[in-house]
Design a protein that fits this description.
TIM Barrel, 17 strands, 403 residues, 2 domains, single chain, lysine biosynthesis, alpha/beta, amino-acid biosynthesis, Lyase, Ornithine Decarboxylase, Chain A, domain 1, binds pyridoxal-5'-phosphate, lyase, diaminopimelate decarboxylase, pyridoxal phosphate, 9-stranded mixed β-sheet, 12 helices
Length: 403
């Protein structure tokens, strides 16, 4: 990215998230083109980066959305995503969320248990509506990724086993209030190998065949998200190899192919800018203390995730340093043993690949205000979320001084 980091940091302050919208467009187009010749929808996984401007940008390109709360469904609709391209997933949907999703007439609710199916049926009956549903199948495939972001094994809480799924489809097909239109799996995140996706897709496509054989006509085949991206030097999955595997698995079936990329779309569109506050040495160990913290970007603390870190425009001999934030936790770091030149107060540090699961996982821990977000598009920058203030943070708290 050819950007004047220093100028942006000065204009908007730090800590700051920056997203390259041209990159996002490029990612969307690359993936969509890889589905050429087939009916397909790219359902952007809103939880990766749910800024309304990011979603609206994808909506204009024709994307759908994969949402995991009614709040995300509202964001998708507000940002202009077509309601018939919105899926509502998640293991724990509340009654009010189910009701609103049905009233908003989105494409389908993705069910993750038999109990949830019965709930959805009940709510649909109350509303006198038919609920379009898909069922999330847990194909028991090891995605070979970080255990925290693996979701396709029976030991994970997600989805239902094949046999259970089949029983649920038969039940739903008979129900007056359920319309089983889709099938879904999502085996994990940051997948860099195709074989687990191939295996899962084959298993689930076989289930589709056996359902079609008993006149249950599945129309949407949703392969979930999880395409891995390059944070460091990973070799990951190409869009065309990915779709080829899906095409092979679904050969001979008339289906609309759906996928739900989150990280793939936005991770490397984003960078996190933070400013050096101090350098210090503890028993020979070098620390660079910056003005951003784990509350802004928690991936290193939570998953021990690697993010490339650079000092902008600073020369000098590089020595290893831990880049840490001001939060009162030892786990508050962005990188360990990062080679960095000698740094001074106000030098800018860039944490790369921060566009996915960055801002959306931010919190107010330590009463720290959430950072601002900026979009870069066609060489222009624009603020897409203001920096939070102290007042924003305390606004919802009630009377606290004695009368
Ligand atoms: C999180 C999630 C995604 C997106 O995962 P990425 O790794 O960001 O692509 C897609 N589908 C479901 C159901 C999810 O929970």
């Amino acid at each position: 990215m050819e950007i004047d980091t220093k100028a942006l940091a000065k204009k908007y302050g730090t800590p700051l998230y920056m997203y390259d919208f041209d990159y996002i467009e490029n990612r969307y187009t690359t993936l969509k083109d890889a589905f050429a010749g087939k009916k397909s929808i790219i359902n952007y996984a809103v939880k990766a980066n749910s800024n309304l401007s990011v979603i609206a940008h994808l909506a204009k390109l024709g994307a759908g959305a994969d949402c995991v709360s009614i709040g995300e469904v509202r964001r998708a609709l507000d940002a202009g995503i077509d309601k018939y391209k919105i899926i509502f997933s998640g293991v724990g949907k509340r009654d009010d969320e189910i009701r609103e999703a049905l009233q908003k007439d989105i494409l389908m609710l993705n069910l993750e248990s038999e109990a949830e199916m019965k709930r959805v049926e009940l709510v649909a009956l109350e509303l006198g509506k038919e609920a379009r549903i898909s069922i999330r199948v847990n194909p028991n495939i090891d995605p070979q990724t970080h255990p925290y972001i693996s979701t396709g094994l029976h030991e994970n809480k997600f989805g239902v086993e094949i046999d259970m799924a089949k029983r649920m489809y038969i039940y739903a097909n008979k129900s007056e209030y359920l319309n089983p239109v889709g099938i879904h799996f999502h085996i994990g995140s940051q997948l860099t190998k195709l074989s687990p996706i191939r295996e899962a897709a084959m298993i689930v496509a076989d289930l589709v065949r056996s359902l079609k054989a008993i006149k249950i006509d599945i129309k949407f085949f949703d392969v979930g998200g999880g395409i891995g991206v390059v944070y460091d030097d990973e070799v990951t999955i190409s869009a065309t190899d990915y779709t080829q595997v899906i095409f092979e698995a679904t050969k001979g079936l008339d289906l609309t192919l759906l996928c739900e990329p989150g990280r793939y779309m936005v991770a490397n569109a984003g960078a996190f800018f933070t400013k050096v506050l101090y350098e210090k040495n503890n028993g020979g160990k070098r620390f660079v203390i910056v003005d951003g913290g784990m509350n802004d970007l928690i991936r290193p603390s939570l998953y021990n995730a690697y993010h490339k870190i650079e000092a902008v425009g600073v020369e000098g001999e590089k020595t290893p340093a831990d880049v840490v934030g001001p939060v009162c936790e030892s786990g508050d770091f962005f990188g360990k043993n990062v080679p960095l030149p000698p740094l001074e107060h106000n030098d800018i540090i860039v944490v790369h690949s921060a566009g996915a699961y960055g801002f959306t996982m931010a919190s107010n821990y330590n009463t720290r205000a959430k950072p601002a977000e900026v979009a870069l598009q066609n060489g222009k920058d624009r603020l897409i979320r203001k920096r939070e203030t102290y007042e924003d943070q305390v606004r919802l708290e009630l009377e606290y001084l004695e009368k």
